[in-house]
Amino acid sequence: MLSLGKEPPRPTDALEEAAEWLMRLSENELSASERAEWERWKVSSPERGRAWARAQLLQSKLGGLPPSLAMSALDRPSNPQRREALGKLALLLAVMPVGWGSWKLAQSQQWSADYRTRIGERRELTLADGSRLTLNTETAIDVQFDNQQRLVSLREGELLVQTAQDASRPFLVSTRQGHMQALGTRFTVRERGARTHLAVLEGAVNVMLADNSQSAPLIVNAGQRTDFSAQQFGTLTLADRNVSAWTQGMLMADNMRLADFVAELTRYRRGFVRYDPALANLRISGAFPIADTQRTLNMLVQTYPVRASGHLNGYWVSLSPA
């Protein structure tokens, strides 16, 4: 039973309570006393009222809980899967309504793709021609091989490509920004916002823009990197030697701003990590495991003048100066 308490709840606590009520409402009919408790809870503070308004908005858009969360709602309250589902639901409430569109898009991209990975997951594939792909966290791809070409379409995320030789069919990787033809090569591709980031480790890659047929293709050679939009190429520079460290389960930081470090770390972690603006330019260096982001946060706190506090069952972490 949720306690109303005398002190006004923090916004994160109110969201967690709203998530709990959504779960309880999805499980079965509330008794008269439970419904009365729910009604009192909704009007007990402005924070709880706002949290429940977000819950109602989510219900109106989904017609109920997301299926992946509703399944966990049927478990007993002490079940770890149910506690994880509560954290996810509270997080979804936290980003409503702004985060709804991106969440829905991500779900549709992930579940309709030929191959996909979840947050924090990596996956290795060997294609029919012997080419090898490594998919990074939250990545979705389609694969289409025919007599004319071998095509991998990156819908979202990041992958490492190691191509097999086939003189009769080019190997292409496409994103919304362009097409990359492998010239006997090993390379990484990451779609980030409205740009594609390409780093070539071996061989070369021929890049063609999606919406600028007048622009000549750009050849990116081993040891080089570039990024591009659908209309324009970025600068051609030396590739970061750690660009594929994620395939070994590591996040490599070399004098990296904490703001950029957090942005990279949250790719592998379910939930939010927020930081005090005073920490944005703190420089971070080291090798950090991406398979255990909590361990990485502990390493950060132990090494740098940073304090971490968790909310919503660990799904919301705040970093502040120590």
Automatic annotation (TrEMBL):
Coiled coil: none annotated. InterPro entries: FecR, FecR_N, Ferrdict_sens_TM. Pfam families: DUF4880 (PF16220), FecR (PF04773). Residues 16-56 form the FecR N-terminal domain. Residues 114-206 form the FecR protein domain. This is FecR domain-containing protein. It comes from Pseudomonas salmasensis. The lineage of its organism: Bacteria, Pseudomonadati, Pseudomonadota, Gammaproteobacteria, Pseudomonadales.
